[in-house]
Design brief:
This protein is of the alpha/beta class. The chain has helices at residues 13-24, 64-69, 105-109, 116-130, 134-138, 145-152, 156-171, 180-192, 204-215, 256-263, 309-312, 331-334, 338-352, 406-424; strands spanning 5-9, 28-33, 44-47, 50-53, 59-60, 77-79, 84-88, 91-95, 195-198, 219-222, 226-232, 235-240, 244-247, 249-252, 272-283, 294-297, 305-307, 321-329, 362-374, 394-396. Helices cover 33% and strands 25% of the residues.
Amino acid sequence: MDDSHIVVVGAGLAGLVTARHLAADGADVTVIERRDDVGGRVRTRTRDGFTLDRGFQVLFTGYPAVRRELDLDALNLRPFTPGATICRPSRRSVLSDPLRALTSLFDSIRNPEVTTSDKVRTLALRQDVSTRTEAEIFASPDQSIRSYLRDWGFSEDYIDHFVAPFYGGITLDRTLSSSKRVFEYTFKMLSAGTTAVPAAGMQAIPEQLADSARDDGVTIRLGERVDGLQSDESGAIVTTGRESLEADAVVVATDPKEAHRLTGVESIPTDAHGCVTQYYTLPSGRGLDAGKRIMLNAATADPNTVAPLSTVAPEYAPADKALLSATFLGDAAQDEPEDELFEKTRRTLEAWYPDRYFDDLELVHTDYISFAQFAQPPGIHDSLPGHRDAPGRTYLAGDYTAWSSIQGAMRSGREAANAVRMDLSK
């Protein structure tokens, strides 16, 4: 690998992991990113003292690639409390993980939303998935999450009132028509670690990766778009608005649509799930009583979830303010004006809390995200592209070579680096 020049297109999680591993092997690595900052879909902005991630995103610390690639202590993680608050008009109830949040065990036992048999099946399901690896889960026969849970014998009430909003937030598909493989592995990971956000926002994750890559000698060029590339078995030429770069290999680590444009690989998935996330503020002391748990809308999908962000991470808001987020799913939300979405959240909160008004709720920002993750219907993972499916010395890195997640992106980056290393060492 010494003296090999490699270009990585894209400074998201997969591209940064790829670049760092190749540079650590002695390669001369240049990353080209069209945006003015790193992170891809994992980005954060600040506004009026608030920390606003691009959509509601969290880090599962149980992911093996997360533990391997990141210094978790340096991220100053702020964890959510395991479980959730199930909400409907005039009623809120806690469902905790009884093995990890013993202080809420009694509340969970009394939870009217979940039958005893559903609780027993949940523990049995956790034991089942805990014995299988990521590779085994994603190689298993597939079906939709809903049909899978029905086969396990879960009640329709449990599926609709807890799993649909909770996993709707993970897969961005409240209908539960996504692959049960995603359900199984994320369910396993929820028990293997915590769910958290960095104190400085989710973009602290790619920024840490970028700093590590630069420490290993990687050059990261921001604000520069790749117009095209040519590649054969002898190398590659990457063309930007500034110049043409010759390289021994190029790794395309962009979003799926851009990767499809640059490489022409037809198996790259471009069907997407989107969402709309709104951020709101309340005066300090006027926040919600959910503690550090996510709030699930058991009655409707508008919004699907509400998250008490500044309760989890006080750094996300000024001292005299509370910060909440609400996430809406489905195509229809993409076309709704932000003031109408805001009113839906305000009315929902007033239904959940009939003894108070939310006239002091203020809208801070709205994120319309048309491509939050690629769609993952049953069987999709069997047809995803491999790292070597692009022509010549072009390689693919991105969650679309594995599954749509931070784990998929980071694992893909390491595996793409391994593929380049093996091929250039022949």
